[in-house]
TrEMBL record:
It comes from Dechloromonas hankyongensis. PROSITE patterns: DIHYDROOROTASE_1, DIHYDROOROTASE_2. Pathway: Pyrimidine metabolism; UMP biosynthesis via de novo pathway; (S)-dihydroorotate from bicarbonate: step 3/3. Its EC number is 3.5.2.3. This is Dihydroorotase. The gene is pyrC. Zn(2+) 1 binds at residues 13, 15, 99, 247.
Amino acid sequence: MMQLTITRPDDWHLHLRDGEALAAVLPHTARQFGRAIVMPNLKPPVTTVDQAAAYRDRIVAALPAGACFEPLMTLYLTDNTPPSEVAKAAASGFVKAVKLYPAGATTNSDAGLTDIAKAYATLAEMERVGLPLLVHGEVTDPAIDLFDREKVFIDTVLAPLTQRFPQLKVVMEHITTQDAAEFVASTPANVAATITAHHLLYNRNAIFQGGVRPHWYCLPVLKRETHRQALVAAAISGNPKFFLGTDSAPHAKGAKEAACGCAGCYTAYAAIELYAEAFEQAGALGKLEGFASHFGPDWYGLPRNTDRITLAKENWTVPADYPYLATDTIVPLRAGETLSWKML
Ligand SMILES: NC(=O)N[C@@H](CC(=O)O)C(=O)O
Ligand SMILES: [Zn+2]
Ligand SMILES: [Zn+2]
């Protein structure tokens, strides 16, 4: 049987939620990854170092016995995040970044930034202390076509931001377009990007295959095939500015299969397998380890993991759902379909 052994990967963009949802999804991530950057878009959001410490404690308490997994925490940037909180975050040792959600751009982003200028003093402090800014890169103007919102964000917000704060460490999260891949590639080393497995595997046709497929709906929404190909090219390029971030975003089955379904794909149950499939399809399995296990920690200035994981080329059928809440299950991306890689 064909096998692939790589340094244990990390997930540089993950939603773990809280309470019973956290307990349900955390074992999936903790089995595969050594660390994960945990998104702060809880209700209410994680805006202070004290809240991040408490959330971190709840995550650690929810870990399965014997798990060796380190949650890397983030703060949710609001119009009122003071520069003093940045200094506190940098000193904490466990807060690794600050997350910018444009207000209203995605799930639980109501408390997000209404105007980038409101954060200038805070961003200046982040640039000074070297605390990275993670960005959900979409404008929210309803007049802008949904499929153009990432490009318009780059042109109107991100490019000017990197000019104003040239030393600021920035990760453009879950990039979905050729424009984003080209922009990130054109910037200095302090600007990087994460790419999800689903944006490497699918284009927007997947959302409409034979009918509306809510489990393929996420934000930023899947784009056309040319963009998917550009993302694959970036992921397999060996350029260390591009690294793994699943954006696994759990929502209960009833919240997805609804008249107004939530955005987010649940991929944590087989994250590394989905990436392996994408890299294999591109004829670039040999590039998976750098993307999944080396470039992320290198960029964050953290040590690489020292243990390894092994994947086997082996077909298995994804369950129709997994336990999630007492009242509802969660439907994984690819439910009922066959995956061809399996982590041992
Ligand atoms: N990606 C998504 O579609 N949803 C994420 C939020 C986000 O990462 O934008 C979520 O929290 O559900
Ligand atoms: Zn996002
Ligand atoms: Zn996300």
